[in-house]
Write a structure and sequence with these properties.
With 161 residues, the protein is an alpha+beta fold. Helices cover 32% and strands 34% of the residues. It is built from 4 helices and 7 strands; from the N terminus they run βααβββαβαββ. The radius of gyration is 15 Å and the shape is globular. The two termini are 18 Å apart.
Amino acid sequence: MEIVQGGPEDVDTAALLWAHAVAARDGYDEVPSLALARPGLESALAKEPSLLLLAREGGRAVGFLAGGPQETNTAFVNYVGVHPDAWGKGVGEALLRALPEVLIKNGYERAELMVYVDNVRGVRLYERLGWIKVGHPVPHPRDGRVEQRYAFSPASWEPGV
C-alpha cells in the first residue's frame, strides 16, 4: 500500500470514498452522490495548510484522510475514510501512521478529530495509535449521535509502535 499527498484533482475521489464508507458504516440504502459528498470535503480543505492523504493499492485509491487548520498549530482531521471493500486491511492505520510526518512538515504541533462513540472500530484504532480523549462525549449538532474528541501530538509519536 502506498500513501501519497493528494491535491485538488483528488477531491472527487476522496468524496466518493467517503460516500461509500459512510453508507456502509451507517447502513444507508444508497450511496450518497458526489454532489452531496463533495461540499463537506471541499470545506475541510478550504484553509491552508490543508491535509489530503490518499491510500492507494494497485494504483487505485482505497482510503483517504483530510483536514486542515483548526487553530494555531492544531490541525483538525475532518475525515478518515476507507472504501468498504478495503475494510480490515490496515488502510486507516496506514493513513494515520503517515499523518505525524505530514503534520510536522506543515507546522502543526497537534491534531484533533471527532469520532462517533458507536464507531467501535474507529475508536479502537485511534486509541491504539496514541490518540487521547479530550473532554466528554457530546451530541453531533446535526444528527444527535454522540461523538468524542480525540487529540494527538506528533511529538509523542514513535514510529513503528
